[in-house]
Amino acid sequence: MTFSFRPAARRGFALTVFLSSILFACEPASAQLEDRRVRSLVQFDLFEYQAHEQANALRWDAFAWVGRDYDRLWLKSEGQQSVEGASAGITEVQALYARLVAPFWYLQTGWRFEALNGPGDDRSRSLGVLGVQGLAPYRFDTEAALFVSEDADVSARLTTTYDLLLTQQLVLQPRLDTNLAATSARRFGIGKGLNDLELGLRLRYEVRREFAPYVGVSWLRAFGDTADLAEEEGDEIERVSVVAGLRFWF
Amino acid sequence: MNGQELLLSRRRFLQSTGLLGLLTALESLLPRYARAGTLPPQVTNVLRIERTPVSVGEIAGSGITVNGSLPGPLLRFREGDTVMLDVTNALADEDTSIHWHGLIVPPEMDGVPGVSFPGIRPGDTFTYQFLLRQSGTYWYHSHSGLQEQSGLFGPLIVDPVDPDPFSYDREYVVMLSDWTFQDPYKVLTKLKKQAGYFNYRRRTVRDLFRDISTRGLGDTFTEREQWARMRMDPTDIADVTGELFTYLMNGLPVTGNWTGLFRLGERVRLRFINAAAATYFDVRIPGLPMTVVQADGQNVKPVTVDEFRLAIAETYDVIVRPSEERAYTVFAETMDRSGYARGTLAPRQGMSAEIPAHRPRPLRTMADMGMGGHEAMAEMTGATSQHGMQHAPPATPSYRAANGQPASSPSPEHAGHAAPPEPLQAIDGVAHGSDHHGPGSSSIAMVARSRVQDPGTGLGGDGWKVLTYADLRTLDYPRDDREPERDIELHLTGNMERYMWSFDGKTFAEAPEPIRLTAGERVRLILVNDTMMEHPIHLHGMWLEMENGVGPLRPLKHTVNVKPAERLGLRVTADIPGRWALHCHILYHMEVGMFRIVQVDEPTEPT
Q1: Is the per-residue pLDDT at A77 higher than 60?
Q2: N or C: which end of chain B has fewer CB within 10 A?
Q3: In angstroms, what CA-CA distances link B428 with B384, B450, B557, B566?
Q4: ipTM for the complex?
Q5: CA atoms in the 13 A half-sphere facing the CB of A93
Q6: What pLDDT does residue B11 have?
Q7: The pTM is what?
């Protein structure tokens, strides 16, 4: 996979660094407590090998945040890359400012950059992001966002997971990913309406809280115009994968 | 048999059982009073704080100790003495401090860095000097960062000028603590990243099926639905558990078996101190009823119990009188039942008695949620019995729809001189106001009520007498019989998901302005616990007179355990001008901001 940051991307990154230096500048200590300490987390929710009939692939979904309780900078990356046959994949990064607006919810806004490689030309685009991330009632870990691309294409995404404890360390996690678009973006294989739906079921073993290998299955299906576009490109519109990977954080 | 031989024989025993590890390391740091024998009348006036290597098998770590011992040396003074203590900071690169927990001293001697003194820099010596106007069992600990978790604490006894109103033949300090080799800052970092990190007793699918088979589908569904909707975990009893902690009694782990000797027929005074950073202990001595004679160093009307809950930073003095020539286990089970500390009272060294089995893991109930109405009642009588516990008393027959009581308004029912027994202020519950405290608070007690008659989560269903706050009656009466001039309502708040803890939804950094009192003023501090955890709240510099339904005999406390969804009234006389700390004594809660300054101002001259 090859792609290079375009100027817009570089500007976005520089802005992120600049904002973080303003947000988390040192403040005078108060009675020497830890309540103003800047903390951070890096977490790979998915980091896996996907085996299926066509091309096997690597898939990841990760985030990092730095900040205090109320104000944080988030970086997210998600993507998929084929590891055999013709190179094909998608890589996405997001840089977001997040504000804790309710006990369980961060409001996030910022910038998303995505790059597609193969089949066909490599292409990339920037999008603006407005989303929420947090824990929904009934303990669904949820991420929902609206995107507006530089070509004014409007889309949305919802990701939610649930942890079902089989034992204290063995956790079964159903996962739902879905994309919707208000306008089509044919160059990126996106049709109007419901794009796709991915349902996963992963069984992880928390060797430690921070380190959990898993196995699972993932079912992905494209719908409507998106499915038609995929067929035109010779892509499959439905795919079942067996996955094995590692969930970890630090 | 002298002390050295005792030590060796115990070591040999442990070597043979392969349990030497933790014991060797910690026992080598044991202060003298923790070994067998009675308490020495020692007075140390020079305290040196330093990092001391502690290693256990493969694990090498360190503790922060006072004069090289863990816990620190016993400080013993006499009421009326003026004490001078030189505290030297021999740490390489961090400030330190010592706070005399429960002693009322001038603010600049209270030892809270950034509040009343600047702290002690590395290499510096600070001389504490204060007059002792009280007696009883207290303790001391660092008030800097997380040093208390690393071992910087010790017992402090002030002997009374007048004889105690009870008698005893022998006495021991029983100091309970929690120990970890992990850097406490790493522990806090883990909690901030994943608040349930140390909880390995969450409910699983198996628990679900068991509940369905015992309680039925409907009940199980209703109960699970509520917890899930609120995004709360009913197994969240302690933030840090036995997964990480080793629990110590006088610095010794379970295998070390701290032993206090007695002769048959003797009355033994046990001075229990909870010096843990994050652990509540439930204490009992199977076969020996305990007569509580002091709470937080203050004499109380003797009350005989089989078990008591010792909140963090509290002390209870009990008298026991062994009636058989045998060993008795002193059992201090953690509130979440994930571990215990243990010692033995015995006529001879080397004896031990049966260690009781752990009781079932307790669960939070609807009562802890602060729900009003019949739901809570159903839960209190239904769910609890199935887990082998019961909340006593079964509360009031109905929760009257309470009007939101505005903060800072005196309660008319308290006008005039209260005669015992007085009605509890909030027995029927007080509805929460409209301010839900923002994102720093993920729950509120819809109806908060007095729970002083409730022995607490996981207690009261064992068929024996458990101490409740309502059992405490001071012998030090009258003190200040004025009615409070005003109410100050403070809500204990938290967001467990993000490990945020605060008062009124704001951490200390977010609300640095002090709570202001005027010297001589008499106020009622009302603590309302909006969280689903117990919080041991400690006020420096002033006594908390706890409204526990016994009228003017209300007990004096330096630390009060506020239960989930509890509304607790505390009468306070602002005696000494200065800045005083008010905070949760769960070390990690205080450190993330559950902290306030109470400032007592000089009265302005009337013009």
Answers
A1: yes
A2: C
A3: 21, 8, 24, 11
A4: 0.89
A5: 12
A6: 39
A7: 0.89
Please report, for residues A177, B24, B150, B210, B221, the alpha-carbon distance to residue B206 in angstroms, rounded to integers and kept in the order given: 28, 40, 38, 6, 14
Within 10 angstroms of residue B526's Cβ, the number of other Cβ atoms is 24
Number of other residues whose CB lies within 10 A of the CB of residue B79: 15
CA distance A239 to chain B (A): 30
Which residue of B231, B581, B592 is in closest CB contact with A139? B231
Is A135 close to B595, i.e. CB distance below 8 A? Answer: no
Q: Say whether B497 sits in a helix, a strand or coil.
A: helix
pLDDT band at residue B214, thresholds of 50, 70 and 90? Answer: very high
CB contact under 8 A, A101 and B439: yes
Query: Closest partner residue to B193 among A41, A102, A135, by Cβ?
Result: A41
Dist. CA A108–CA A97, nearest whole Å = 6
- Residue A53 tokens read as 């009939």
pLDDT band at A16 (very low <50, low <70, confident <90, very high): low
Cα–Cα distances in angstroms (integers) from residue A81 to residues A118, A119, B25, in the given order: 10, 12, 53
- Flag the least confident range among A123-127, B259-263, B397-401: B397-401
Q: Which residues of A fall within a CB distance of 8 Å from B508?
A: 30-31, 33, 35
> Hey, are the CB atoms on A137 and B189 less than 8 Å from each other?
no
Residues in chain A: 250
Q: In angstroms, rounded to a whole number, what is the distance separating the alpha carbons of residues B350 and B257? A: 9
Question: Which has the higher per-residue pLDDT, B289 or A8?
Answer: B289
Residue A122 banded pLDDT, cuts 50, 70, 90: confident
